[in-house]
Amino acid sequence: MTVIFTVDSFTHELFKGNPAGVCTSFQDVPSSPKLDKLFQNIATEMNISETAFITKANDSSSTGRYFLQWFTPTNEVDLCGHATLATAHILFEQFLQSSSVDELIFETKKVGELKVKKCDQEGRLQMDFPQGEPQPIELNAKIIDEIKSKLNVTQRVLATQLCRRTKKLLIELSALNDDIKPQESLTEIRFDPSIQPFIRGIILTSNSTNTTEDFVSRYFAPWNGILEDPVTGSAHTVLAVYWSQLLNKSLLRGYQKSDRGGHVECELDQQNKRVWLRGHAITVLQGQMNISRDSFSYDKTM
């Protein structure tokens, strides 16, 4: 049987934050294209924003190293924050609870090594991610109007930036209200050909109206089969850089204002061009899929 968990990330409350699937049944075998096909089928069946899968690390010389992949219901993605947090939470809670290991290292296909460690007595975990690289970009008025119309945005657009590496378009608004609605039709927008390949999600953000958070945001990624992601770690690698420049501070608190909502603390490590994302996670579900791991992994006819 294949063991699967569901974890709510960036929250300490059940049914809040962002749910992620975590599959740990393949941690002792290497990644392969054949396993990728199975992982995609499992992620499609799970039908939540991302499901994470760990396999054997290429460098397995030490405890606490794994190879990590993330799949949406439609495709594999280069980076996913909340599913990384969920994976670390499950490993610490289910497999390393009696171990002295307090930091995990995840090898990845596209973004190098990611580190996650226990960071305080409150049970939060800290993820060490590469910084986003948002750059100012001008969008013509027709494109801006089309985005606003599709998302039901009525507020003023204050700035637009694009992070080509994470393929996220950031739009700062004068406010972020509850009238904004996710739409699959965002994928119909025809951006300039020079930037079209670099847009797989849209971040809407504004300054916070209270003293608890520095900024608020929402994230829409129908290009990856996700109308709206409840809480997005990878988006905060971009948001942290953007708001750090505006507010002139390196430690920021973000709140993703989706229906479920979630809190992400961000701290920039400017010297190493990294961002530390901190948050809680809570296990919601543990179950089994009727999939024989060994028959799939080693049956070459499949």
TrEMBL record:
Signal peptide: none annotated. GO terms for molecular function: isomerase activity. Pfam families: PhzC-PhzF. Keywords: Isomerase. GO terms for cellular component: cytoplasm. InterPro entries: Phenazine_PhzF-like (IPR003719). The active site is at 50. Gene3D superfamilies: Diaminopimelate Epimerase, Chain A, domain 1 (3.10.310.10). PANTHER family: PHENAZINE BIOSYNTHESIS PROTEIN, PHENAZINE BIOSYNTHESIS-LIKE DOMAIN-CONTAINING PROTEIN. Belongs to the PhzF family. This is Phenazine biosynthesis-like domain-containing protein. The lineage of its organism: Eukaryota, Metazoa, Spiralia, Gnathifera, Rotifera.
